[in-house]
Amino acid sequence: MKIISWNVNSVRARIENIKNYINDTDPDILLLQEIKTQNENFPTDEFKNLGYVSYVFGQKSYNGVAIISKNELNNINLDFIKDDLKQSRIITAELKFKKKIIVLVNIYVPNGNPVDTEKYEYKKTWLKKFINNIKKNVQKKTNILIAGDFNIIPEEIDVHDFKRYENDALGRLEIRKKYRELINLGFKDVYRLKNKTKQEYTFWDYFAGSWQKNNGMRIDHFLLSNNLIENVKSIKINKKPRSKEKPSDHTPIELEII
DNA sequence: ATGGCTGAGCTACTCAGA
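Output (structure tokens, whole complex):
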């Protein structure tokens, strides 16, 4: 089963790229972030024509997450955390997989820049609530998959120039500690588990020729609860979509479980 | 190089992203 996470930076601006990508990679489940649209304008029919059902948590202009799936999912939840700013950043669902139930948690973590502003506080508060609720879920359920745009550079190796980001909302130790805290609840960063020293990225800025210079960062992640690691067949960052015309600034990360 | 680009909402320009 192929589960893919992709921050598409507007589902409507990217629809042709996304459809081509689906035809190329044939995902079972696609976790989308930054759809930047309200539910009523989400291209549900376009995905239906490709054989997918859509579960959408949109909002006007900004943010928004969705799950596209070949098979129906259960217990769709848009209230995983209480967001004081009412931003659409998290959607969860339950997937039946080989007599297990896996909780899918699709997230778009706040950016948090500039640091030491209310935006940074929002990111910290959001992460704190998120970790608390994951902690509660870990006690009840053991099969959890968290994927999406974390807006966190986990370690120095995960960005082209760490010096430039060590006091940024994506690279500050205080934020990276939150990521470790999450992992310490009983998860693995699947990409890093399978690629101990590899330096690959999931995001490149649109400006300054970042893509051409490979000035990127790894901020999109798959965290899998420890008991599911035995089911991992492969994990891959697919750089192709970032090289296309009119690309998202993020590229998909692809997990296959068996 | 704290933004050189891109998208949404909207029609002139701001806000947001990382």
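Residues 9-10, 12-13, 34, 36-37, 60-62, 111-114, 151, 165, 168-170, 203, 205-210, 217, 219, 246, 249 of chain A lie near DNA strand B (CB under 10 Å from a C1').
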